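Data card: per-record layout.
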Amino acid sequence: GHTTTTTTTPARARARSRAAAMAGPGATPPAGGGGLLAVVVGFLLKLVIKLFFRDIEITGTEHIPRVGPVIFVGNHSNQFVDGILLSHAASPRKPSFLIAEKSWKRALVGAVAKAMKCIPVARAQDQVLAGVGRLTGVGSALTGHGTAFTTDLVAGDQVKVGGELLRVAEVLSDTSVTLASELPQPVGTPTEFKVAKKLDQSAGDGRVWDTRWGGGSIGIFPEGGRHDRTQLLDIKAGVALMALGAMQKYKGLKVSIVPVGLVYLNRERFRSTAFIEFGAPLTISDALVERYGTDRRGACGELLKDVQDSMEAVWVSAPDYDTLRMARTVRSLYQPTEKKVRPDQYLKLLRGFVQAMVSFRDEPELISLKHKVKHYQEQLTIYGLHDRQVEKLGVNWRSALELLTSRFLYVLVLGVLALPGAIIHAPVALAADWMSKRKAREALKASSVKIQARDVLASWKIIIATVVLPLCYALYAAVFLLIRLRRGHDSPATALAHTWLFATALPVLGYASITLLDEGSIMLKSLRPLFWTIVPFGHSHRLELKTFRTELKREIRGMVERYGPLMFDNFEKTRTFLQRHKSSASLATEIDLLNLRVMSAEGENEKLIKRVAELENQLATEREKSMQLSTALAAIAPVAARARGTSEASD
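The structure for this 651-residue chain is written out next.
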């Protein structure tokens, strides 16, 4: 796996100067080191994520202040992996994370958390107790049956009914309570309930204030829990209380809040891709800190809204998985074949298409496009292809056969070379897969916000692999040593030396197998379009799919031209891909369509071929004119700028 960091040097310089101004009195750079155990744990975690993820794309690091206290706030959609990735990406400003006290008390997770100097925080949802009696309710009113609300509840406690935790606004009597929000649905039959008592977090806040604000950083996932939804949950007040409380306690202190978006492609799969984007830091005004002293709820609410908006800006939030999947397909279709996108451009395009689908969902044109894209996705599923592979359909079948044969043999060789390592590590993979699915079922059963509990799969695969892999290596080494000793050909010292070499070779063999399988999987995916090209039946259907894709690309680009300016200010200046000269674009599309028609013809169609040649000549002429125009504009730009400056001075 590799890590790519996208930064902008001027922006980074501005961020440093801005951070220095924000740091306030007494701020110092974060202290380095954290003990040998922290170094070892940090190295192992970094190694684990580099093995689990094929690519880790990091962008926006210029927004991280180099000095002064920082709170990193990120979405929580991949359990423990989120914290590991954020810590890796934020280096050297590695944060101390707030971790649920429930996780802190687990043996393995707690040991890692203590080594990384995390701060345990008690959560109400982790300390739920069975309530006395039963209750019914409608709207925001609860009615008890055999209850003692005046004894068991106070304002601020939470009542769990049907999987939802609802905050108590007022206790009216032993049998009557008013909630701060309405029940999701009426409770007509007397039902058992649970109570989560309001917790005093002042001790935890004190540890945060007193140990980390000397120039350090804190990491927090303010949604209050992990989930696998496509939208952020409402964030909790903890981040606002920490930031405003610290600035109120330490006069002159400036706290920066940096939003972090963690976006995963197939997050539960081994060798997948992760995107990490840091947004512009939020600064807290002195006026808001003063307001916090007199109107704590209002000040926190204002800051929380800003934090939520900033997190939305660096994450990809969609109404549902279907919308997100469709946006990914549309992004792929929109991207020109010859262009490659940076991680920040990829996320920008994906957010833009999701936003367009939400903003213009009732437009007939967009509804029609959605139906076409859905049909295209269904065709891709039937053929087992990805969007970009459709372009490879329809090449000469002889060339396709030669390429298919050579690549198949290459994949076969890679598979044979990787087989020993795959067999040796198979128990680890099977154990990790089984346990992660079991934990996902348990998490889904215990949660009211998860959809499929995908957020726990990757974490448990990593945890189980981290535990089982050394045990497997130890077992293999013990068996190897036993065999060497039983044969009697080696002395104990020689047998131990050979065993040491064998044990050292195991991780090397594992890494080599991963590398070979990575290469093989990429080649294996490329075989599908080649296979469909040489298959004699269905030739016309495949060409229809390619033609449909070309027409769909043209329609998507046309909609971008129409709706882009309505959605974004300065659309032409900020767009990811500059629009080619319109006549060139239309000519290129017409050439694509005509080429497809030539390929689908029974024999050689001289008229179509001649027309393609004419259009290609026109396209070359239009592109040459466009380049000449661009050169001329670039040449006169300085003259025009000086002329404007002279005119303004005269005025």
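Known properties of this structure: DSSP finds 20 helices and 17 strands in the chain. The CA atoms of residues 181 and 609 lie 69 Å apart.

See the next section for split statistics.
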